[in-house]
Amino acid sequence: MSQDLPAVLRVHAADSVAVALRPIAAGEQVLGLTVREPVAAGHKLALAAHGTGDPVVKYGLPIGRTTRPIEPGEHVHSHNLATALAGERDYTPSVRQSAMRTVGDAQWQGYRRADGQAATRNEVWILPTVGCVGLTAEEIARAARLRHGDRIDGIHAFSHPHGCSQLGDDLAGTRALLAGLAANPNAGGVLLLGLGCESNQIDALLAAIPEAARGKVRVLSSQSAGDELAAGAALVDELVEAIAPARREPLSLADLVIGLKCGGSDGLSGLTANPLLGRLADRVCAVGGRAILTEIPEIFGAEQALLDRAADRTVFDSAAALVNRFKRYYLDQGLPVSENPSPGNLAGGITTLEEKSAGAVQKAGQARLTSVVDYGGQAQVPGLALLEAPGNDAVSSSALAAAGATLVLFTTGRGTPLGFPVPTVKVASNHGLAQAKPHWIDFDAALALDAGADAADAAFLRQLLAIASGQRTMAERAGQRAIAIWKRGVTL
Residue ranges of the SAF domain (predicted)? Predict the structure, then answer.
């Protein structure tokens, strides 16, 4: 990080705190204040006096209320700041003009599918209907990779523990998620591998897949096959032969569908990595592409700013209902809606859910909110979509892939190696993480602090277009591919 950078950053003119860009010692002079106690990088420093119960403002938004008086120069964190979130709310629409910058289009090399969708990878996916055949699916995939080498971009099995002992909406959610994955354009061919006696029957799952995608799907019931490994191998071979002739061609940013995700956030995530994604999302949406925001509990406290960007009253009402439905999900379990941030977030300087949310929603930039998508559904309208899913990294990233994302852009301040069905681009919020974990991280967003936002945006776009065009992410190189399904009901 450049030595010319200031020690702290005041994000918005209305903020009553600043964020430390490096560790600050007691006694240092910062913004005309004497620092009263050590402040770690990513943590907050009071810029003004606060009384007990006063709001603390960051990003121009209240991020909680003080629990005791705070003097200028003090460290502001969980010892003197607490959430002000409660339960469900009545939301009132207001008109807010988009502030997106129009930067222009860019090309990448991808696969155009017969239904018009564009893919960043040309792969065969094996999707088990039930956990009982998850290891069988992985065995079929391993053997197929040895047979076919690099004829296509990959052959992957996505095992999970669900598909049986589920009822009602819980079973329907599992089926919807798997159907959405089967429809993802990165899966040029799909094998649905069943057991035979499970609740998640193959016929019902096949019927849930959008009709345009069913032609690329093959099915196999293990209990009905003599040798399920040989039968599965033959079907995968058939799919490989069908998709191997596909070739990349020049495509537009309008053909991209990007999933927006953060995990292991720190106090710099909302200053570097998340705004970087927001500016990229604006650029994609401005030319007619799609960006998908999820992690509904991690917009609590910042949802009004997002709702104000709804394209119309129907979208506004659907988004507001989704936020309140998620709050009710917490309340019905006897839990507060503010049961967040995680221990890692707290260590990184994030104190309250309002603060976490205010930083997290920046991944969505300033694009108009054009659609709201149920869990397991597909984002089909150009612009920004709000997708129903929790904050859990694996569950929400799997839902992004099921919604049609052909890239998942994943910001992190603490780091994580895990990748998901589509290329998962890990974006570090700080130099320390990028330098410590180069085998996890694809891009260092702290470049924005050194060289400015425009330079970071240009470098990130180059990296992203290369990955969309076939350059493997760090997670892909490490073989990190997984899904997780949102389990919401009883288990029989």
Answer: 15-82
75 neighbors 38 (Cβ within 8 angstroms): yes
Q: Is the CB of residue 169 less than 8 Å from the CB of residue 188?
A: no
CATH of domain 8-82: 2.30.130.110
Helix axes 273-286, 453-468, angle to 10 degrees: 70
Structural contact between residues 120 and 406, judged by C-beta atoms closer than 8 angstroms: yes
Same fold, 8-82 and 123-245: no
Torsion, Cα 386 389 393 398, to 10 degrees, reads -90
Residues 360, 278 contacting (CB under 8 angstroms): no
C-alpha 99 chain-centroid distance: 23
* Contact present, 6 and 29 (Cβ < 8 Å): no
Amino acid making up residue 46: A
**CB 296, CB 322: distance < 8 Å:** yes
Residue-wise pLDDT for 458-482, tens only, equals: 999 999 999 999 999 999 999 999 9
User: What residue ranges do the domains of the chain occupy?
Assistant: 8-82, 123-245, 253-477
Pairwise CA distance, residues 300 & 370, whole Å: 19
pLDDT in tens, 294-319: 999 999 999 998 999 999 999 999 99
In eight-state DSSP terms, residue 441 is -
Amino acid at 236: V
What is the rounded CA–CA span in Å between residue 317 and residue 312?
A: 9
CA separation for the pair 466, 141 (Å, rounded): 26
Q: What's the rounded mean pLDDT across residues 252-280?
A: 95
Q: With beta carbons less than 8 A apart as the criterion, state whether 228 and 203 touch.
A: no
b/e per residue 164-182 (b: at least 16 CB within 10 A): bbbeeebbbbbbbbbbbbb
Domain 123-245 has CATH 3.40.50: yes
Q: What angle do CA 359, 76, 40 make, to 5 degrees?
A: 80
Candidates 485, 388, 491; CA nearest to 167 is 491
Question: Is the distance from CB of 7 to CB of 28 less than 8 angstroms?
Answer: yes
Q: 376, 484, 399: which is closest to 160 by C-alpha?
A: 484
C-alpha distances (whole Å) from 278 to each of 115, 291, 425, 479 are: 29, 10, 14, 28
